[in-house]
Amino acid sequence: NAGVTQTPKFQVLKTGQSMTLQCAQDMNHEYMSWYRQDPGMGLRLIHYSVGAGITDQGEVPNGYNVSRSTTEDFPLRLLSAAPSQTSVYFCASNKQGSTEAFFGQGTRLTVV
Amino acid sequence: GQQVMQIPQYQHVQEGEDFTTYCNSSTTLSNIQWYKQRPGGHPVFLIQLVKSGEVKKQKRLTFQFGEAKKNSSLHITATQTTDVGTYFCAGRSSNTGKLIFGQGTTLQVKP
Predict the structure, then answer these.
(1) Closest residue of chain B to A92, computed from CA coordinates
(2) What is the band of A44 on the pLDDT scale with cuts at 50, 70, 90?
(3) Which phi-psi region, left, alpha or beta, contains residue B82 (left: φ > 0; alpha: ψ -120 to 50)?
(4) A44 in contact with chain B, both atoms CB, cutoff 8 A
(5) For an interface test with A, which of B35, B38, B42 has the most A Cβ atoms less than 10 Å from its Cβ?
(6) Are residues A46 and A61 in contact, defined by beta-carbon separation less than 8 angstroms?
(7) For residue B79, which of B4, B3, B19, B11 has the smallest C-alpha distance?
(8) pLDDT digits (tens, 9 = 90+) for B20-78
């Protein structure tokens, strides 16, 4: 039981490049979310999903796309990377109606 | 939209001193959760409070949920160096299921 797995752990992109951050969970959780963490800003919700085929925007969705074709996977796509997207990205999952959210180890992204 | 504010942003204490962080929501919450993030790590769930006025304890940590279910606090008695990290509160919307985090309080403990 690996929990929530994020890849890659580190990534450097050039402005304008696109990439996908991967997130997978093996706990059969219905809810999955993506957060970005910036100094002094806490964890801000980018997108979330309450089940396969259902996604919705969080607080800071611009510049990011998501899809949820399976219960296990919730990839985050950066369409055209900008320096403002330099951040640490966390994926989280939790069971519907449950309490705790389980977080992945994070992806540290730098856009130059 | 739902906003969760947390103060203070930083707190430096001497080992053995007490520490408190406060969390306020712009809307009534169905529950409030607390997480701890060690430096370089990921957030780890500590506890959830659900009932109005609820108080829960975990060893030296005391968590409170306000009567109006719009504020909460975490109090650490006699801090230790192992308490170092950032403490986040998070409110879950009963309508959408979204979990919204406060900005966090970073605790430094001087030995």
Answers:
(1) B43
(2) very high
(3) alpha
(4) yes
(5) B42
(6) yes
(7) B19
(8) 999 999 888 889 999 999 999 999 999 999 999 999 999 999 999 999 999 999 999 99
